[in-house]
Amino acid sequence: MSATSTYVRTYLTRIVVVVAAVATLAGYYFAYEPISTVSNELNIWSSLITSFTLFVGLISVFARYSRSVMNRDNNWPFHLYCLAMIVVWIIWGNMIGMYSTLYQTLYMSTKITLHITIIGQLIFFSVSGMYRTFRIKSLRTAVFAFFTVLIVFLNMPPLIAPFPALSTAAYWLLDNPQMAAARAMVMCGGIGGVILGIRILLGIEKGALRVTGGD
Amino acid sequence: MAGIPELKSEWIWGVLIVAFLIPAVNPLGVDFPDSPITNEIYDLIENLPEGSLIVMGGSGVIAFDIESSPGMIACVRQMERLGYKLVTCPLGSETPQYHKFIIDSAKVDVSAGGSWVYGEDYALLPYLPGGTAALVAYLEDFKGTVSVDMRGIPISELPIFDDFNNYEDIDIWICPHWGFVTIIRICTGEYGLTAISFAQSTAYAFFSPYMQAYPGQVYMTNGYLGGAQYERLNDMKGLGHMVQDSYTIVSVLIAGFIVLGNVTMVMKGEEEE
Fold this sequence. Notes:
The complex is a heterodimer.
Chain A (H helix, E strand, L loop, with lengths): L2 H27 L3 H38 L5 H21 L4 H33 L5 H16 L2 H4 L3 H38 L14
Chain B lengths: L8 H17 L10 H11 L6 E6 L3 H4 L3 H14 L2 E6 L4 H12 L15 E2 L8 H9 L1 H4 L26 E3 L5 H9 L5 E6 L1 H7 L1 H5 L4 E5 H11 L5 H34 L1
Parallel strand pairs in B: 1-2, 1-4, 2-3, 4-5, 5-6
């Protein structure tokens, strides 16, 4: 890679990211019209760039699956089917209108139904997994199994309808010990995200702003 | 005492399939309690001025957001009854389809027997890419962000958008999606809007701290139960009610299988001794 492109990749991308980040943060903290205007304009640019990435994803899928079909890699018939469906749905959607009732019905009947089925399968695996893993062999597993059964029963409609105190108990568990743990996780995630962002901007972290070939 | 054999997973799955089919064929109609939060949401929407503008928006995946649909469909019917206006803000690529699904299921359009006229009482917008950036742009300068509706009609030709310029024209934001945190952070945290979510039960467990962080501004119902409660408040029976039957049966089975697993373990231990 030439030195020029190395410098461009290294520094130009970082300059763009830093300028955009500082402008957005400034628009967040300062009530000053010119800064807000810049920040809002960058938000609109961000929306346009995100639209562009949709096409990048589509082109990437086409390139990869086309290579797979031509080379007869593993599962190439499925890749060919995927490419054909993409073409059919794009042409079909543009012909009848993506938000037409027919397109909506087809979309909900195929992709969405299959997606819901995949998610719905989880309960079967969860229950059989609970049967095998919630075996009380220690204090930890006893607590785990006890609270699992407790939460399940405390949210069971026929039980909590005649005994509202059970619902109160369930929400106390959700709003106190569970919420404390959830808050800790959310805060850790937020702090981790900020630290990761700073590391990327400073070039410490390996990532999109890191020049290839180096430490 | 004879030992209990270890159950194969396929047998457990078979029992579950039967358990799901029973209420589908013969609804049990199990009772369920009210919730003060759900009642508060209902009263909040009931007491808005006539002609209030409500935005239904956020980002999610339809397969997950189905759990939010019972409450949202009931709420859309409530909005139609009270003469409110509804505009969408789809921040996910599947979200426009979901919003259309909600409107179609609520049957509020004149073509479905309702009283809402498209473009006057409600409007559906296309996917707004950009995530948080798109949301901020939408709130700051709606007409600078959105130019056409879902059908490609310029928004200048739709009367519902005549007086909609920015966040100040929004009365309430409702998010029937997983991505409620973004709405809270931006709409409530930055722009002071009241935000309601017909949340999925997992989302409720994760995001309920925000109700304490923004009291009186952030509200959430809890999964299908919350949806069923909101359906009952609107005198309707839908998916929320149907799910309560399945939930009841599977709850008993979960506890039963956990107990059975432990009994099996104990008996195996006795046999080995």
